[in-house]
Amino acid sequence: MTQLPSPSAPSDSARPGRLIVIEGIDGTGKTTLARLLADALRESGRDVVLSREPTDGPHGRRLRESARQGRYPRAEEEAALFLADRRDHVERLILPALRAGRWVVLDRYFYSTMAYQGARGLDPAEIERANRAFAPSPDLLVLLELPVEDALERIRSQRGTAPDHFEGRDYLEQVAKHFAAVEHPRLLRLDARLAPDQLLAEVMRALRD
Ligand code: T5A
User: Fold this and answer.
1) pTM (2 decimals)?
2) CB-facing half-sphere around the CA of 6: CA atoms within 13 A
3) 3-class DSSP state for residue 72?
4) Ligand 1 touching residue 195 (CB < 6 A)
5) What pLDDT digit, counting tens, does each position of 41-91 carry?
6) Which of 24, 59, 135, 153 is most buried by a 10 A CB count?
7) Which long-range contacts (CB under 8 A, 24 or more apart) does 89-96 make?
């Protein structure tokens, strides 16, 4: 069994669980890694919640629909919906799980808003400030990095669908620049061209360290 920090050794006494966030541009393998990580943590005896943003709640469903049908013309309106979706997510799932000592693995979080809505012209620092007012900080932030060309190729060939309205090449280049500028005290940047098992091993090593 993998040795990981004890869940009874809280990083914050108000929330003894752990929050692990996986971020990156579209097609980098976030969902694949999040699932592998959740399984590995469960095998090591942790009580794990795996979740994603946009969520499956009412705001999240509207946002996913906009990725297929056409985006909100105003970036402010889009950012407000992501914020509302996250507020629900934090209140209903993330904070209760952390307070119960569970490990929460998230496929996207507010760094995506900073990067994607930042790429639409909004101020990432302002987005971060608005989110930090209610959203707990991750204990580990994993950033998957992949050239945009490779990401688009994965979306086309492996997902079997055309890129959606969030996935234009120039736009994703801007998003990638915003992700490159993200700072966090426990940030793990990984080359997403590694195999999923290798990526998992890197994350588990970071958690042990
Ligand atoms: N958004 C989201 C915002 O604009 N603001 C926000 O605040 C938030 C939260 C939907 C959109 O919403 C935007 C960003 C998005 O455009 P989403 O549903 O998470 O968000 O969209 P995607 O990131 O596009 O989700 P995907 O599931 O398509 O991409 P993943 O999760 O990064 O990749 P994954 O794991 O599904 O893998 C993609 C393909 O690559 C293969 C897989 O088998 C799959 O075929 N793969 C690998 N191949 C080689 N090596 C690896 N290591 C691989 N890992 C996976």
Assistant:
1) 0.93
2) 2
3) coil
4) yes
5) 999 999 999 999 999 999 999 999 998 888 888 999 999 999 999 999 999
6) 24
7) 89/51, 89/53, 89/55, 89/57, 90/134, 90/135, 90/136, 92/57, 93/49, 93/51, 94/19, 94/51, 94/135, 94/136, 95/15, 95/136
Give the Å distance between the CA of 14 and the centre of ligand 1.
32
For residue 13, the model assigns a pLDDT of 63
- In the chain, the domains with their CATH numbers are 18-208 (3.40.50.300)
Rounded (to 5) percent helix, strand, coil in the chain: 50, 15, 35
- Ligand 1 nearest-atom number relative to CA 82: 7
Atom of ligand 1 nearest to the CA of 108: 9
132-160 b/e with 16+ CB inside 10 Å = b?
eeebbbbbbbbbbbbebeebbebbeeeee
Q: Find the 1 Cα to ligand 1 centroid distance in Å.
A: 29
pLDDT tens for residues 115-144?
A: 999 999 999 999 999 999 999 999 999 999
